[in-house]
């Protein structure tokens, strides 16, 4: 699930709950089934995506893809660009530089299977986004709710030094990639028959890529200069495997309109500054998408039109940060009669014999031998250093 859709869903979980100063058990309307729309049209030629889904009741929280829409983007010059279903509520179009012209206004239009028509306000594609002047990190220790415990980790910062005539509103999306290793390599595997592993390291090296599920916004609209210095982005602690080998962060920077900034900044505040789930009344944050025939219908999300730039940074600090030990202890198997049954196949093994081959073997959870079990891939990213 893309980060923005995840955030919208988490915010939706609080939207329908009336609040007060004291926590309470709310009465939840299980019939709510609102559209959730998230679109991002940038000035970068290539694949442009629109996400359309339905909200779900709190008793069964999830986003429900809507795969039955007719979707298009229209510009004020009369051009219409159809978007095609990819699956899971994702609609796409490959757009060229000649179709993505700064200063041109675009809007989203779509019809649902029940004949309802929805559209967004027109959004003007801004002039080229300022570049990121500097993306950097510092090793920092932060406190926790336990005064006796603290976390070590890496705090990322960003600097921007834009011209006075460039955008004043910014939003950032972060994509992290990190290398991690399994605790043991695989010498043998057992699936009813004992086999030697042709490549013991095939599941030892892995890389995981995913979006950071936080919102970052800033504006210089009321500042003298169009400069942002030492803006804090993502913090990565030593409580995961992210920093153990090598970590990379890709920062995507978007220049956005005043209306888009107001929307995303409210979502950011709701996400980061609210209390517990039932402690405060969340604001009614409405986006720019609406039902043409029923403007009062609640439609969640926003159709964004932005110019963009990006920057990547690599982090290699594992020797400078302490990490907790892994929990990959091994059980010992001394003969074939002790091998697990077929419900656990394949069983990965490593020899514990002094000669380094044969019985006794050590076995443990698959995640300790096969790094892909943790959600990553054993294919190295093309950009990895």
Characterise this structure:
- By secondary structure, this protein is mainly beta.
- 8% of the residues lie in helices and 41% in strands.
- The chain contains 2 helices and 23 strands.
- It has helices spanning 3-15, 258-273, and strands at 35-42, 46-54, 64-65, 70-75, 80-87, 90-95, 105-111, 117-120, 123-124, 134-143, 150-161, 169-181, 188-190, 194-196, 205-211, 216-219, 227-237, 246-255, 289-291, 299-315, 331-333, 347-351, 361-363.
- The strands form 3 sheets. It has a 15-stranded mixed β-sheet that branches. A 5-stranded antiparallel β-sheet has the order 14-13-22-23-21, with no helix packed on it. Strands 10-11-17 form a 3-stranded antiparallel β-sheet, with no helix packed on it.
- The longest helix is centred in the last third of the chain and has 16 residues, at 258-273.
- It is globular.
- Mean pLDDT is 87; it is low at 9-31 and 275-282.
Mean pLDDT: 87
Structural class: mainly beta
Q: What portion of the residues fall into strands of 2 or more residues?
A: 35-45%
Distance between the termini: 27 Å
Count of distinct strands: 23
Largest sheet: 15 strands, mixed
Based on Cα principal axes, name the global outline. globular
Number of helical segments with 4 or more residues:
2
Low-pLDDT stretches are: 9-31, 275-282
Question: Into which percent range does the helicity of residues fall?
Answer: under 10%
Give Rg in angstroms. 25 Å
**Secondary-structure element string:** HEEEEEEEEEEEEEEEEEEHEEEEE
């Amino acid at each position: 699930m893309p980060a923005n859709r995840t955030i919208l869903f988490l915010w939706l979980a609080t939207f329908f709950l009336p609040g007060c100063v004291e926590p309470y058990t709310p009465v939840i309307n299980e019939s709510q089934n609102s559209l959730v729309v998230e679109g991002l049209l940038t000035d970068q030629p290539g694949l442009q995506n629109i996400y359309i889904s339905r909200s779900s009741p709190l008793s069964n929280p999830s986003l429900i893809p809507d795969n039955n829409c007719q979707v298009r983007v229209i510009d004020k010059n009369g051009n219409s660009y159809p978007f095609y279903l990819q699956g899971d509520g994702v609609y796409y179009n490959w757009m060229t530089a000649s179709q993505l012209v700064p200063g041109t206004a675009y809007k989203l239009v779509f019809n649902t299977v029940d004949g309802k028509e929805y559209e967004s306000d027109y959004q003007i594609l801004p002039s080229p986004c300022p570049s990121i002047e500097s993306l950097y990190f510092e090793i920092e220790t932060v406190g926790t709710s336990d005064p006796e415990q603290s976390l070590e980790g890496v705090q990322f910062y960003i600097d921007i030094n834009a011209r006075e005539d460039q955008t004043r509103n910014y939003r950032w999306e972060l994509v992290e990639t990190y290398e991690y290793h399994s605790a043991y390599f695989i010498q043998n595997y057992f699936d009813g028959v004992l086999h030697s592993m042709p490549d013991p390291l095939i599941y030892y090296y892995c890389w995981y890529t995913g979006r950071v599920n936080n919102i970052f916004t800033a504006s210089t609209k009321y500042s003298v200069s169009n400069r942002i210095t030492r803006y804090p982005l993502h913090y990565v602690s030593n409580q995961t495997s992210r920093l153990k080998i090598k970590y990379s962060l890709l920062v995507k920077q978007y220049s956005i309109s005043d209306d888009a900034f107001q929307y995303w900044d409210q979502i950011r505040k709701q996400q980061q500054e609210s209390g517990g789930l039932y402690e405060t009344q969340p604001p009614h944050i409405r986006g720019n998408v609406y039902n043409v025939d029923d403007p009062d219908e609640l439609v969640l999300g926003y159709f964004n039109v932005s110019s963009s730039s990006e920057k990547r940074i690599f982090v290699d600090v594992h020797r400078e940060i302490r990490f907790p030990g892994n929990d990959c202890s091994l059980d010992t198997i001394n003969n074939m009669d002790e091998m697990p049954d077929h419900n656990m196949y394949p069983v990965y093994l490593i020899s514990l014999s002094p000669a380094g081959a044969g019985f006794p073997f050590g076995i443990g959870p698959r995640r300790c031998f096969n790094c892909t079990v943790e959600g990553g891939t054993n294919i190295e990213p093309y950009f990895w250093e």
